[in-house]
Specification:
By secondary structure, this protein is mainly α. The chain has a single domain, classed as Hypothetical protein af1432. The chain is built from 11 helices and no strands. The protein is globular. The C terminus is likely disordered. Bound molecules: fe (ii) ion (FE2) (2 copies).
Length: about 210
Amino acid sequence: MIYIFNWLLGKNDFHDAIECLVAALEAKDVYTSGHSSRVADISYDLARMLGLRGTTLANVHVAAHLHDIGKMGIPENILNKNGKLLPHEWAIIQRHPEIGYNILIRSKRLKKIAEIVLYHHERWDGKGYPFGIKMDKIPLGSRIIAVADSIDAMTSERSYRKAMTWEACMEEILVNKGIQFDPVVVEAAEKLWKVWRKRQETYETTELVNSV
Ligand SMILES: [Fe+2]
Ligand SMILES: [Fe+2]
């Protein structure tokens, strides 16, 4: 993680600023921070598998770490509510991509990362939010994070349900190939899921994509 920040940012003060944002997110919500780290690792692997390198790869990785930073602007009683959300509460949660964008866009150097965060809940078929844009109108980084986000949500335990097995998770991702998710990103996930399953057993933040 540290090395990719250095690669992207070059300057230590900017690197420090990103670390502060990640720390702020951790202070607010431990669950979101653990989730974001895993989504960052999965997104990094997918992006590399899809041939992204250099700054473009680093942008996807950093955006994945920060994808839910807009949840800092959502009231905790809604964010941590046990049980079904009411329609108006759901509408408030759905604001988090735009809140995240508005936080990150304050830095000109984070423009690309802010855009990836803004579109991370859009869907390939145009039924996502906040704009309902579809297919390659959605930045590739956002399409990658959308798949990684769903994989981590399904394979993590929640208070109200058990974690899904990796096999069941991949079946679910495949069912949504070309519907919710970019088919090309799903194909990359198919090549990587055995590596992720192994990593979850002994979870480490390493670049396993190089070993497949
Ligand atoms: Fe999100
Ligand atoms: Fe998320």
